[in-house]
Model the fold of this input.
Amino acid sequence: MTKQRIKQCTICKVDFSTMYRVQYKNPKEWVFVCKECLKDVKKDNPNYTYGGTWKK
Ligand SMILES: [Zn+2]
Done:
């Protein structure tokens, strides 16, 4: 069995096959969020930075 890095949404803790790498708060750190949570964090957020889409 290979070691697989599980990427869970930082906010809702659900494991999705497609995750979005973003920064959304201060201090800035890279986190993974799902599509639904992405909508919330990017809205009116000056700290929001998009870092790419990750697929399994
Ligand atoms: Zn989520």
